Amino acid sequence: MNSLVVVGGNSNPVLCEGICKELGILQGQCHISRFSDGEIKVKINENVRGKDVFVVQPTCFPANDNIMELLILIDALKRASARRVTAVLPYFGYARQDRKDQPRVPITAKLIANILDRSGADRVITVDLHAGQLQGFFDIPLDNLFAVRIFEQYFRFKNLTDIVIVSPDVGGIKTARAYAKRLNAGLAIVDKRRVNDVHAEAMHVMGNVEGKTVIMVDDIIATAGSIAEGANALKANGAKDIYAAITHPVLCGPAIERLKAAPLKELVVTDTIPLSAEKKLGNITVLSVAGLLAEAIRRIHEERTISALFE
Q1: Which UniProt keywords apply (predicted)?
Q2: Residue 301's closest CA among 136, 82, 152?
């Protein structure tokens, strides 16, 4: 492991520390600061020549700053003669802008993929991409890991009964089916109509949830409109206890107010995005993806297969 280096930006230092702890190594030393005009300044404070370097930097809020910090870190490492630089993006920002759904709009996810490639990144690791086809936007290898195993272990430990897995919209049915198969649970869908980027209306619940323990699953919770409306619809259809398992807790805009009012017993998220103090509600549980990412890093560094992590 002497040739392995893991460095982290400022977007999620706690997760980077957790990954290094899982790997049993010290975190790579770098200094990130700003010039007086706000430009980002980076200096790598150890020898990385010929080494295999992994940069942990989810591109969450503030996305633009964190993306620039990631690009500058990659450039600094390549110019310091690192053998390979892998960008570890537990949360890949701009992923929802993956197609032209209106005239004269960009495909920003593709743009970010191109920029990462041109910056010198040799590989990308991420967790639960918003859409699987985003992997095709990259001309370098990308490993999209799944958090389903982490959630499965947590809910098995709770010994819940009469479980129904619910997708908050039709687009998430594939993910919901994977959870249902692992937990040997039923399956239901909330028929949702999105009004705009902030508001969504739950129309119908397809499937039997009356008297059941419901777990809503999704990859991102942003303004919490889908989850809140879905929870209200499920409760109106007789659901007993309602849980939500969401990988990336973006939690922006009116999300916290909506979650406080929603009939959710527990919201379970991961630490791909750090939660600020005002977002740490009493019914929010945070699970760590440090072990999952550390195992992927270890296998890639040792040139071993990571297929087992996708099962």
Answers
A1: ATP-binding, Cytoplasm, Kinase, Magnesium, Metal-binding, Nucleotide biosynthesis, Nucleotide-binding, Transferase
A2: 82
d(CA 91, CA 271): 10
Q: Per residue in 9-35, pLDDT tens?
A: 999 999 999 999 999 999 999 999 999
Q: Which of 43, 192, 265, 280 is catalytic?
A: 192
51 is an active site residue: no
What distance in Å separates the CA atoms of residue 144 and residue 136, rounded to the nearest whole number? 11
Cα 70 to chain centroid distance, Å, stands at 16
Q: What pTM, to 2 d.p., does this model score? A: 0.94
Which residues of the chain does CATH 3.40.50.2020 include?
Answer: 4-146+290-310, 148-287
- Segment (H or E) for 164: strand 163-167
pLDDT above 80: residue 202: no
96 among annotated binding-site residues:
yes
Percentage of the chain with pLDDT > 70?
Answer: 96
117 marked ligand binding residue: no
The pLDDT value given to residue 200: 58
Domain at 4-146+290-310, CATH class: alpha beta
